[in-house]
Design brief:
The protein has 332 residues and is an alpha/beta fold. It has two domains: 6-171, Peroxisomal Thiolase, Chain A, domain 1 (3-Layer(aba) Sandwich), CATH 3.40.47.10; 179-329, Thiolase/Chalcone synthase (Peroxisomal Thiolase, Chain A, domain 1), CATH 3.40.47. Helix content is 32%, strand content 23%. It has eleven helices and 13 strands. It has a five-stranded mixed β-sheet, sandwiched between helices. Strands 8-13-12-11 form a four-stranded mixed β-sheet, with helices on both faces. Strand 4 (78-82), helix 4 (93-101) and strand 5 (107-111) form a beta-alpha-beta unit. Helix 8 (222-243) packs parallel to helix 9. The protein is globular and about 60 Å long. The two termini are 25 Å apart.
Length: 332
């Protein structure tokens, strides 16, 4: 039996309309536009209104994705929502999304792997299609990071924004080289102290003290995270290409997680990739965690940088630490 290959047949994105600029942040903390741009590459980020939650952003992205191929939500077999900012601890955000979009036949689950979450979800969805278990899988990356950011902390509040993106996965035609090629991943728990949200889980449940001590916000030790991300993204991209008999010259586009422009450029330099082969859109969105890779892919498609037959390399490093790199042959 010929193995089934999953391919990406549609991409849809959504960001909330409100924009928070660097000039806006200058009014909140001791920072300025030049400092933020030079260190992160970020000029602005989108922020959800008080009425919106992660399930709303995810649902909007899912609806766009399905509408682009004229697919009914009732034809979706499974949904994977990748997020670290669920509407609530339970039920799973996917339950809310499933109801919002009317995917009455779909089952699904949430996947938590921080900034690597979307790549992990994409690999999982591709495996479902590849096994023959499902024909249509929606993989959604969505985060409302503004809900867990301390806007008195200039080291973190400049970095994050809100947004969502979704891919539709379906079987490729028999004999086609389109779609999923390979994935490599790693988790390294020694990185847990350097990027986390300390309270709100079973170890430190919410209390007056945890709220007063601002323990429900993102905690990050930037230099540790930066060094690890640059090293691991380069290592895993190189190893994945070598395992498939490829070199960086064979890549059409590198679409990395958008955490910091300097991390992306350092990774590209290690791979020897020119600017035209690297997608960087962090300037307009900031770090939307699980939303960055689908948002960057959506921009690449819209601008004509990504076309049928192109070879795409995805890479991410997230809290935990989590690491992932994935290869795809673009299908449309």
């Amino acid at each position: 039996m010929t193995p089934i290959r999953a391919k990406i047949t549609s991409v849809g994105c959504y960001v909330p309309p409100r924009v928070l600029t660097n000039a806006d942040l200058e009014k909140l903390v001791d920072t300025n536009d030049e400092w933020i741009v030079s260190r992160t590459g970020i000029s602005e980020r989108h922020i959800a209104g008080p009425e919106a939650a992660t399930s709303d952003l995810a649902s909007c992205a899912a609806k766009v994705t399905l509408s682009r191929v004229g697919m009914s939500p009732e034809d979706v077999d499974a949904i994977i929502v990748c997020t670290v900012t669920p509407d609530m601890l339970f039920p799973s955000t996917v339950c809310l999304v499933q109801k919002n979009i009317g995917a009455t036949r779909a089952w699904g689950f949430d996947l938590i792997a921080a900034c690597s979450g979307f790549l992990y979800g994409l690999t999982t969805g591709a495996s479902f299609v590849g096994s023959g278990l499902h024909r249509t899988v929606l993989v959604i990356g969505a985060d409302t990071m503004s809900r867990i950011i301390n806007y008195e902390d200039r080291s973190t509040c400049i970095l994050f924004g809100d947004g969502a993106g979704a891919f539709l996965l379906e079987p490729a035609e028999n004999g086609s080289d389109e779609g999923f090629i390979d994935f490599m991943g790693e988790v390294d728990g020694s990185g847990a102290p350097y990027l986390n949200m300390p309270a709100g889980g079973s170890r430190q449940p919410a209390s007056v003290e945890t709220v007063q001590n601002k323990m429900h916000y993102v905690h990050q030790e930037g230099q540790q995270v930066f060094k690890y991300a640059v090293t691991k993204m380069g290592e895993y991209c190189t190893a994945l290409l070598e395992r498939n008999g490829l070199t960086p010259n064979d890549i059409t586009l590198l679409i990395p997680h958008q955490a910091n422009r300097r991390i992306i450029t350092a990774t590209a330099e290690r791979l020897g990739l020119p600017d035209e082969k690297v997608v960087i859109n962090i300037g307009a969105y900031g770090n939307t965690t699980a939303g960055t890779i689908p948002l960057a892919t959506g921009d690449a498609v819209a601008s004509g940088r990504l076309k049928k037959g192109d070879l795409v390399l995805y890479a991410a490093v997230g809290a935990g630490y989590t690491v992932g790199a994935s290869l795809w042959r673009w299908a449309y």
